[in-house]
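Backbone geometry:

***
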Amino acid sequence: MKRRNQFDPSAAEFNLDGNRPSPNVSAVNLDENRFTSSAEPHKPGSTRRGKSTTTWFALYGFLFISIALFAYMTNVLLGPLRLLLLYPPLFRQINEAIVWYSGIPLVIGVALIGWDLIRNVTRSHAAGIADALRNLRGLERFSP
């Protein structure tokens, strides 16, 4: 039996294995079903956005905390390496200084995140928190 080519128009009524397709399956032209948008393409300068005046200090806080944790972990892991060097007291002083001073960006990062949380909590959030606390206090009399 001669095998038919899948691109041969006379082979359209056969599957790739040479058998006739199921009567429940119809042929699909993929080019007809391809999604085409009738909308015009987006132009980069066409949308005008307002200038955002919000600075998210928490993002900078996470950056500072990441730097601090990286410096701290690097120096803690490299601490035993200083024992292998020629003059351990000098390297110990350097290592201790870096570990101690890595706390500065950590404190700055926590302060920035805290500031951002305090600044962005609105009165409605505070009212919601007050309601939740009032509800919890009301439940205290039912506790054993």
Notes: Residues 57-142 form one domain.
